[in-house]
Every structure is written in structure tokens, then in C-alpha cells.
Specification:
- This is Helix-turn-helix domain-containing protein.
- Residues 36-56, 80-107 are annotated as: Disordered.
- It comes from Pseudothauera rhizosphaerae.
- One of its GO terms (molecular function) is DNA binding.
- The chain is mostly helical.
- It has one domain (4-156).
- Helix content is 48%, strand content 4%.
- It is globular and about 50 Å long.
- The N and C termini lie far apart (53 Å).
Length: 157
Amino acid sequence: MKLIDDIRAENLARLAGEHGSVKNLAEHLRKSESQVSQWINRSTNSGTGKPRTMRSTTARAIEEACGKEVGWLDRDQDHAPIENAGDVSPSTNIHGGGEMEKSKAAPTAARWPFLAVDESAYNALTNEGRAWVQARMTSAIEEAAARYGTLSEKRKA
């Protein structure tokens, strides 16, 4: 049986997918991207050594802000469809604005960019699982771009 904190983290990742990215969700919630990411990833609190969780009052506020019914974050959504997410296949990328659009250069078996990640394991995920992975990847890509820059920035320099 899943713990409530695990369910909330999964559902928050689902909301990030619905909003297009962790950054978009954080902006919508008026929370820091770091805070939302820590809730989704259950990052360890350096003070307590325990995974970060959200209070029930915070969960209710998030549900209200996202137009979800009271208690939605607390319920396992594994078999529920993702609202407004469209196709969440490996050839779909999350873009700002909460929309899911087909990528012009969608990953294929020959173009799968993550050599250390088994593409078939990703393909075996449910749509909800893929949305969760994509929300985390979007956040990681945004953080890497901020930290290390992008190729287009380096070409201009």
C-alpha cells in the first residue's frame, strides 16, 4: 500500500505534466520551482534527514488552485486519465503553457538521447508514468540550462 506522501508526490508530478513543466506549475501555484520539485522528488530535508512532504493544508490549497476536487492529491490516480495532457508518447515533449505538442525531432529508436536509460522501460510506462518522467526531465533540463548554459549560447560566445 502506498503512503499518502508518495501518492501526493505522484499526483503533484501529474499536475506538473498537466501544466507543461514543474516551472509552469510552480508559477501557477506561486511557489518556488525548487519547493515544488522537492515535493515531487521527495528530496531529503537536510535538517531532519527525512523526505520532504507537504501538509494537508498545502495539498488542499494546491487542489483549489488547480481546480481539483478536495482530496484529489490524496487519491491514487494510477488508473485515472491525465486531464488536458493529450498524447504522452515517447514522441511527445512538454512545452510551456500546459500543452503537449509533438516534437519536430521526436526521439526514435535511432535517436533516443539517453544512452544510459532503457527506452523500452520508458515505452512500457503508462501515460501517467510518462507524464511524471517528462515533468521531471523538463525540470532537470531547465536546471541544467541555467547551470551550464546551452549550445546556442556557447555558439554565440
